[in-house]
Amino acid sequence: MRLKILYFAGLREQIGQGSEELDLPAGVFDIAGLIQFLVARGGQWPSLATVRNLRYAVNQEMARLDTPLCPGDEVAFFPPVTGG
């Protein structure tokens, strides 16, 4: 399954990129599985699991860890931000 993944705000700087397209291995069906897959890549990726209050969206709609993924989905990860 191929997905487009977007990284926003400080997370983009931690990861070192704003987006990527990935082919996921069998067995990755939801946001939780995607995060586990990304963290297992090593390098800068374990920082994804340490972001407090990490938010996710699938196809521009807020999602939860158990939100299922489908081929072609766009998944966005972003830390909470404040304005002022």
Automatic annotation (TrEMBL):
Coiled coil: none annotated. One of its GO terms (biological process) is Mo-molybdopterin cofactor biosynthetic process. Keywords: Nucleotide-binding. CDD domains: Ubl_MoaD. GO terms for cellular component: molybdopterin adenylyltransferase complex. GO terms for molecular function: nucleotide binding. PANTHER family: MOLYBDOPTERIN SYNTHASE SULFUR CARRIER SUBUNIT. Belongs to the MoaD family. This is Molybdopterin synthase sulfur carrier subunit. It comes from Candidatus Accumulibacter aalborgensis. The lineage of its organism: Bacteria, Pseudomonadati, Pseudomonadota, Betaproteobacteria, Candidatus Accumulibacter.
